User: Which sequence fits this backbone?
């Protein structure tokens, strides 16, 4: 009738489906952002129960919603669930069966009626048990090697300025790293998580460090890999490293660089993290249960290329958000983090009070970005003895495994700490310590001709 408002002919759906639509959108949002799986522990099932109770109450309200939107919400939920299942599959491929099962158990708190989830959990447990039968005990030394960020642009590095010789001493190039990893893999090494070396147990009502027995695939030898100063300090960027790590549109770690002419480059083959990610995809037997490496971070010029130290900067929130995203993806893919001190101070030489202030600042600015870590990697490799008050202070701050630098594998346990030496892989090792590297690689085959002679 003329003058009356015109109604659309879109079909309507009942109130229960409308409220279900709202819940679906809400759950899909939670799943797609990852918030649920970052913050919800299995013990916190009451959160999921609250969601279900609220859902039941909402079903009794009377509103209507367009069927097309309802279907869109259903599709959104399916995509989110597919993403979670993809994550579970990835964990399974890495041999992290327990972690994969935990993800599924969390999912069950929202979808208890889903019969597929328990079946997937049971299947994971079956595979885990079969793998356990194939592992053998390992009693030999545990290697620990470390690098600095790679020389990505050697023309900037070896330009004859004051920094060139330092980079020549302490860094390696992309071709060198690739050859080193190929050699280490061919020699039967397998990357292990540094946390797999010990566990905490109560002994006579006291929390005690206990060596953890290593069971590995037959013929494999354990190795821990770490990277120091993956902060991308401005002086490093100016002298040939990439600018920062980023997460690409597919959720993978890549690098970002920008030339002096303004040319932007995203790459997967000029830094250790994405190179190793891809290498392990091709050679999954190079990683035990998804382990990759330990990132030792300072804080005085931010982390991973993000200036998270500039707390008053208008860009701080954005820098922090992007850094958190990179950290999350790295952790999910097998990387872990360690403290390298806030200001890269020499632990042995610095006064106690300055070390304490430095450590507390690291815990205030860096720990919230990477999460708690009990691994302390000494700047300059300058360790202190366990009876030193500075060592005891670091223990009180929660650190339990302390890594310095040495020429050979070294691993010592106490009931309250672990001491471990790392072998430096750099220009000095390649050029001056070739004989000491023979158990890992042939320096003559590795050395990049782009390097100028070392100066002393």
Assistant:
């Amino acid at each position: 009738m003329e003058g009356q408002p015109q109604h659309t002919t879109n079909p309507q759906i009942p109130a229960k489906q409308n409220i279900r639509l709202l819940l679906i959108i809400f759950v899909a949002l939670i799943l797609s952002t990852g918030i649920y799986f970052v913050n919800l522990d299995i013990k916190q099932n009451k959160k999921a129960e609250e969601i279900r109770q609220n859902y039941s109450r909402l079903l009794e309200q009377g509103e209507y919603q367009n069927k097309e939107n309802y279907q869109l919400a259903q599709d959104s939920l399916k995509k989110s669930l597919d993403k979670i299942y993809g994550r579970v599959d990835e964990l399974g491929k890495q041999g992290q069966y327990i972690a994969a099962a935990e993800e599924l158990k969390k999912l069950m708190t929202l979808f208890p009626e889903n019969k597929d989830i328990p079946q997937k959990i049971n299947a994971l447990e079956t595979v885990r048990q079969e793998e356990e039968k194939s592992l053998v005990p390992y009693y030999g030394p545990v290697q620990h090697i470390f690098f600095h960020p790679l020389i990505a642009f050697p023309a900037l590095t070896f330009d004859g300025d004051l920094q060139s010789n330092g980079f020549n001493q302490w860094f390696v190039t992309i071709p060198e790293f690739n050859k080193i990893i190929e050699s280490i893999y061919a020699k039967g090494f397998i990357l292990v998580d540094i946390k797999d070396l010990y566990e905490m147990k109560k002994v006579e009502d006291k929390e005690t460090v206990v060596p953890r027995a290593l069971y590995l695939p037959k013929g494999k030898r354990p190795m821990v890999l770490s990277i120091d100063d993956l902060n991308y300090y401005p002086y490093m960027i100016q002298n040939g490293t990439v600018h920062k790590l980023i997460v690409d549109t597919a959720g993978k770690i890549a690098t970002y660089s920008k030339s002096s002419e303004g040319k932007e480059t995203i790459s997967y083959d000029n830094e250790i993290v994405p190179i190793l990610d891809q290498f392990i995809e091709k050679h999954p037997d190079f990683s035990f249960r998804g382990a990759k490496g330990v990132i030792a971070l300072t804080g005085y010029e931010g982390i991973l290329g993000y200036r998270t130290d500039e707390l008053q900067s208008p860009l701080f929130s954005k820098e922090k958000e992007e850094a958190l995203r990179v950290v999350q993806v790295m952790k999910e893919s097998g990387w872990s983090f360690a403290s390298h001190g806030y200001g890269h101070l020499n632990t042995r030489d610095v006064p106690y009070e300055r070390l304490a202030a430095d450590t507390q600042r690291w815990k205030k600015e860096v720990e919230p970005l990477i999460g708690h870590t009990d691994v302390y990697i000494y700047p300059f490799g300058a360790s202190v003895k366990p009876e030193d008050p500075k060592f005891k202070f670091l223990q009180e701050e929660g650190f339990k495994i302390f890594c310095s630098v040495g020429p050979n594998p070294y691993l010592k346990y106490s009931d309250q700490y672990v001491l471990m030496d790392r072998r430096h892989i750099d220009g000095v090792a390649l050029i001056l310590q070739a004989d000491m590297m023979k158990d890992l690689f042939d320096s003559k085959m590795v050395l990049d001709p782009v390097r100028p002679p070392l100066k002393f």
Summary: Confidence is low (pLDDT under 50) at residues 1-16, 32-45, 55-64. Residues 67-93 form the longest helix (27 residues). The radius of gyration is 26 Å.
